[in-house]
Amino acid sequence: MHPKSKIKFDSIKFKAYRKLSEFILFKFFHEIKVKKDNINFLMNKKNFQLREILRSNWEKVMLNLLSLCNKETLFLDIGANAGVVSCLLAKKIKFGFAFEPVPSSFSRCVKNLNINKFTNIIPLQIAVSNKNDLIIITNLEEALTNYVINIDTEVGAATAQRDGSVRTLSVKLDNFLMPYIDKIRPKNLLIKIDVEGYEEFVLDGAHDLISSELPIILCLEYNSEEYLVSISNKLKKFNFQRFTPPKGDDHRNVFFSNR
Asked: I need a labelling partner for 4 at 20 to 30 A (CA). Which of 64, 116, 131, 184 fits?
């Protein structure tokens, strides 16, 4: 067998073995403890993102974020979900906040940070928006995707009926973070925003922050070219320019810098 063919075959065998092992374990356990690159995670059957990472590798956006931080970085994980990115970056950054408003996702985020004994990232069960308010979001317990809804509309009410909903606090980054900047004293700021189409609302509540003199890198998820253009135009007003991250573009997340 050709060496390259053997490597490919071994990789397929490993993935098949991993899938079989997971299938057997989840027959007996609701949640299992796993490890990736010396980072521990609690994984359940429906945590498909983490299961895929364990079978193959970290997502490209995660590796890009890891490449762009250092020991002087303040990291904001907005839409932290189970805290996978926060756990990956924790050993490399100075300090961080993980924002996750969905109760089930927040619980997993806290567990994952705790089992690794990461104390430099504070998990917060609140949303980030353009105002300090009470908002309503969907409450799909095992989903990667939850989003803001308006239950006063017919569509919002139907969505809440179908997916469940939860009321949560929302904060503006300007109000929440600016008082702590002088205490944390970071030399740069890395912000990951993955909030299912709510990214522009997050930016609208962070004008003071993104106008500051700190070197800032923003990573935002986008779902259409039209949405990307809108975000780009908004950030140009604050002297942010798009750049290609170290590990390349994944065509789902975009990076901007004010330097």
From this structure: 64
CATH of the domain at 141: 3.40.50.150
Mean pLDDT over each residue of the chain, to the nearest integer: 88
pLDDT digits (tens, 9 = 90+) for 67-104: 999 999 999 999 999 999 999 999 999 999 999 999 98
Residue with tokens 């949303």: 127
- Compute CA distances 75 → 34, 92, 123, 202, 245, whole Å: 24, 10, 12, 15, 16
* Alpha-carbon gap, residue 123 to 128, rounded angstroms: 13
Q: Is 251 left (phi over 0), alpha (psi -120 to 50) or beta?
A: left
Could you tell me whether strands 121-124 and 95-99 are parallel, antiparallel, or unpaired per DSSP bridges?
parallel
State how far the alpha carbon of 245 is from the alpha carbons of 74, 152, 228, in Å.
18, 41, 16
pTM here? 0.86
Rounded Cα distance between 158 and 165, Å, is 11
CA 205, CA 198: separation in Å to the nearest integer? 11
Q: Tens digit of pLDDT for each residue in 149-190?
A: 778 798 888 887 888 888 899 999 999 999 999 999 999 999
Q: For residue 138, is it within any domain?
A: yes
CB atoms within 10 A of CB 155: 10
Is 202 domain-assigned? yes
Number of structural domains (the chain) is: 1
